[in-house]
Amino acid sequence: MPVPWFLLSLALGRNPVVLSLERVVGPQDTARCSPGLSCHLWDGDVLCLPGSLVSAPGPVLVPTRLQTELVLRCHEETDCDLCVRVAVHLAVHGYWEDPEDEEKFRRAADPELEEPRNASLQAHIVLSFQAYPTAHCVLLEVQVPAALVQPGQSVGSIVFDCFEAALGAEVQIWSYTQPRYQKELNLTQQLPDCRGLEVQDNIQSCWALPWLNVSADGEDVRLVLDVSEEQRFGLSLYWNQDQGPIKPWWHSNLTGPQTITLNHTDLVPCLCIQVWPLEPDSVRTSICPFREDPRAHRNLWRAARLQLLPSRGWRLDAPCSLPAEATLCWQALDGGPCLPLVPPLPRENVTVNKVLEFPLRKGHPNVCVQVSTWEKLQMQECLWADSLGPLKDDMLLVETRGPQDNGSLCALEPSGCTPLLSRASTRAARLGEQLLQDVQSGQCLQLWDSDLGALWACPMDKYIHQRWALVWLACLLLAAVLFLLLLLKMNPVKGWLRLLKENIRAGAASRSRAALLLYSADDASFERLVGALASALCQLPLRVAVDLWSRRDLSAQGALAWFHAQRRQTLQEGGVVVLLFSPGAVALCREWLQDATSAPRAHGPHDAFAASLSCVLPDFLQGRAPGRYVGAYFDKLLPADAVPALFRSVPVFSLPSQLPDFLGILQGPTAPRSRRLAERAEQVSRALQPALDSCFRPPGALGTGCGMGPEAGVRT
Question: Which residues form the SEFIR domain (predicted)?
Fold first, then answer.
């Protein structure tokens, strides 16, 4: 049986929050006013033309506030229409230009005079009512006795009954005087539909509405429409975007009753349902039941795509509006976290599906965009490199300007903004004077400029070249000495040079491939097994990166930032990311893929595998994984079919039985011949054997072994 989690009837009187409306009998419009005032409603409509502003000749009556109330105008007991009652609050505006005129006005209203005159202030108030596609205007005449006329004071109100309107319509109301002495008042109101009114037996257009039951059955959502078998109705699913027009998603004309199933991955917060009978002038009623659904919010961020456009534009594509902010950050060539440029640049609210630009004068490949909520960083893209080239080894300088044209320069580094003329032990501080001269001589690129400061990107290539000049000179001298030795002892050295040449070629070929090893820290025995594998791979040699050897960097940067830096460096150098599957790793993958509603399991501060899934999974889902990723698992620890199918788009090897093929993939095109590869596989297997023996202990042995601790097993 499905378990209802949201139940709402689109029929009348079923909404938990309803309005009980006053009844107005008769078709005639009426007007009434506050005690002491006299008012009159002119017959017939008037032209809805406010006219231009004119100066008040003295004190005049003007509308100050509009107030509305919903009522029912009933022709019979069960034949009513929705009507909008409007109250206009009035006040005296302006002063007498001539004191004598004021004195005459007061004397005419003095009750002690033998023959007092009925002095009063009169005004014509226009009410304009618009509800697409109709417009209606009425003219109200009101008089205020002179005794109540006090400039700047409220004198009361006048109430008009009433403007008829359709259920669920958006109405606009204006009020102004004729002639017009001030800017007109306006009010926009969204009228409720049948769900929000206690009118089931009064408004006939609501009688034919279908009943809608939204319920959850497992992960899917079911829409059950309970109507008669012969009744035809329209059903529309659409995205109600706050920052743009309604975007239809699915529409169909159906005959009841019907049950429609929605996949849980299709749910987003702005997904709304509209239903109406297929009859002329029928009432359409909409609900948006997924606004607070956690699954819908997770799906929304997964569906969002951040695009960077040449050369300073960007756009966030998403089906719904996102409460997020975007800012620029600076990504250094040597990796590390992307450093936000706030301040000096401000954060910007995100408007989805719209091209936006940051206030930069020039584009730069190291400038990236971060989109974040108040909780965390949601996404980051550095794709401007496609149009501006790869990352550069540039130093970003932040110039701060004071009120008296006194400014200061500092270099943006992971440790903070380092002043150029300081004694800090950083690269920017050591080259502070040279960088300051580069800015003054125009060798740096100005990215942003304002009254508060500026941003400069200064190339660092020439300083690296100067550093290596002495190294190259020493190498040339060493080469000359070796050449002389070869001339003296050509024959004895020839064989040694041949062997040296082969070793250098093999070593250079192997070292040219980097490997990033990702695993789930299931228990201590499995971590020792991973460490043994990483050490054995380094002996081939390969350049292996694993979080076991970088705990200090993980603590300083955080697991996600460390993974970002290692992954970027590995892929830029043509390396490969190795996903080492274990019961814990498979469980983490399933948690992400199945989008479980239960709270995620807490992970350790150094668990790079758990932190990396937010970036690894999109590569597999979007088809970017082949050539970048390789999978592996140990024979006795995990069955072959336990690896999720999503990750089988890349080669997955069983260790140690498939070690030769695994090593061949790791070393890439420069892998040695099969005989040499088999020897290296045997070398790695021998290095792994002690760790494997310790990990897979026989039953009854001391210790738990791999995957035998309290957290072992594939968690579902």
Answer: 512-664
